[in-house]
Amino acid sequence: MQRLLIVFLFIIFYSCEKITSNCKGILQTNSIADFQIDLFAVNEVQVTEDELLINVSYGGGCEEHDFNLINVFNPSDGGGQQIDVLYLSHNANNDLCEAAITEQLCFDISEIVNSGLLYLVHQDSLYDLN
Questions:
Q1: Which domain holds residue 113?
Q2: Spatial separation of the C-alpha atoms in residues 103 and 88, rounded to whole Å
Q3: Contact present, 86 and 71 (Cβ < 8 Å)
Q4: What is the Cα–Cα distance from 104 to 34, expressed in whole angstroms?
């Protein structure tokens, strides 16, 4: 009976752990110059608690495409307000195929979501994530 109680307490203790996100993390940098930015379209952007969901479209289908969320750290806006500017890098790995691919990307933004002003920049668009 004592073993059963210990097993039961063990199960309860470990089942209460915080569930971690399966989303990719953010890369911190001072410049996006070192990252590949192949063509892609942003269809939808959504912040859900600590996750940034980005629906993208691109041409390809023969190679694996790599997306990374990059935070270009800016200390403040002059008034003490933290500003984080996010960019989405895309490496198509020289994919020359022409299938229309749509993909839902997920990024863990828990470390910066409440730190100040938060923006996503893509080509000529600016997304306010606050």
A1: 22-128
A2: 13
A3: yes
A4: 24
If 0-12 CB within 10 Å is exposed, 13-18 middle and 19+ buried, where does residue 56 land? buried
Q: Report the domain count for the chain.
A: 1
Q: 3-state DSSP call for residue 27?
A: strand
Rounded alpha-carbon distances, angstroms, from residue 35 to 29, 59, 71, 79:
10, 19, 12, 30
Query: Any idea which residue has 């000529």 for tokens?
Result: 124
For residues 42 and 49, give the distance between their C-alpha atoms in angstroms, rounded to a whole number.
Answer: 20
- In contact, 87 and 121? CB cutoff 8 Å: yes
pLDDT tens-digit readout, 45-59: 999 989 999 999 999
Q: Is residue 81 part of a domain?
A: yes
Question: Rounded to two decimals, what is the model's pTM?
Answer: 0.78
